[in-house]
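agent> Task received from the user: take the single chain below, predict its 3D structure, and emit structure tokens. No templates, no multimer pairing.
agent> Plan: (1) validate residues, (2) run structure prediction, (3) serialize to tokens, (4) report one or two observations.
agent> Step 1 OK, no nonstandard residues flagged.
tool_call: predict_structure(input=
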Amino acid sequence: MMRSILFFMAAFAGGMLGGCSSPNAVFYTLSSDTALERTGPVLPISIVVGPVTVPELVDRPQMVTRVSANEVALNEFARWGESLKSNIPRAIAGDLARLLGTANVFVYPQGTVAGAWQVSVAVLRFESVPGDSITVDASWTVRPPRAGTPVIGHTNAREPLTGQGYAAIAAAHSHALAAVSQDIAAAIRLSLPR
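)
tool_result: status=success, residues=194
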């Protein structure tokens, strides 16, 4: 009888612990926008994207969402697949390759190319409001090769969410970064020697 009770208690405890498992984390990434099209002739130039800075508030593995003007939420189970400081320049580099028609776009610090255009980006806001929209506010600098005059610009992109959940947030941020990339590509084209 005692053995039966101990067996039942062990089975019950095992069942309770098995039902208490936590959800698995889901990882998201930013991507270049495949809908972008070249906006002029192919440019046979090299570009290095980076460094990129991001606000400390979002510089973490967890996705951060805005709850109110003074409150944010960190989701332990919705995470970035890599740091935003690495993922943002990779997305912008892919966008610039499409927009300018060059395969010679590299990400700093892995790519350092003599005679390359240098693009640095300071992300001032990288905000996500579930069920509404995202905002990417970025200042950027394009430095032409050989000590040319730098072009300083600013892009404030707001994208409505077209779906629910964190995948929609990641996709909207990718679209907003494409707007940043379009402004950078336009600055490069305008800065080319005539």
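agent> Step 4: summary for the user.
The longest strand covers residues 117-129.
agent> Done.
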